[in-house]
Amino acid sequence: MRRMNPVPRRLDEQLIGALVPTAPHKAYPCPATLPALAVLRQPTYPGSQFLLGMARPDRSGRITERTLLAALRWGPGRPVDMDTRGGALIVSGNPSGLHVVGGRRELALPSALRDMCGIVPGQSVLLAAMVEHDLLVIHSAGTVASLLAGLHARITGAGDVC
Q: Coil, helix or strand for 146?
């Protein structure tokens, strides 16, 4: 079978502008100025430094958040007490505490306390350290989601009924 060669273009050929329109010029709108947002500050308690952190308990219930433990000055071997209150796990520094900070600066959360607070291995937990009070409060992902859902419903008006 014989191939047909394409017709060679002549060097003096030009496109006709009326048949090939130029791209229209797009007028982009001027960017809108955004209102200044209020500066959010961390909540403070009288005489207390309040720090936040995140951690994920491993399958044995151990969590590590070295920054908060360092701020609390809880090194390996430091005795602590653990209790639940309001669905949160409260860890307090106590010289006669039943639990200790581990050698790798981890806290082993007992399974009974984890169950009572809804803390699930592998799910993130929110840790709030109140340095001056020598306290660490641990909130489950479910508690944080519930609190934020209520807050978001209030600030967006999604919970309002007309």
A: helix
Burial class of residue 126 (count of CB atoms within 10 Å of its CB; 0-12, 13-18, 19+): middle
For 66-77, how does the pLDDT look when each residue is reduced to its tens digit (9 = 90+)?
A: 999 999 999 999
pLDDT score at 112 = 94
Question: How many residues are recorded in the chain?
Answer: 162
Residue 119 makes CB contacts below 8 A (sequence gap 6+) with: 57, 61, 89, 109, 113, 125, 138, 140
pTM for the predicted model, two decimal places: 0.67
- Taking only the tens place, the pLDDT of each residue in 117-161 is 999 999 999 999 999 899 999 999 999 998 889 888 888 877 665
CB-count burial class (<10 Å; 0-12, 13-18, 19+) for 37: exposed
Residue type, 59: R
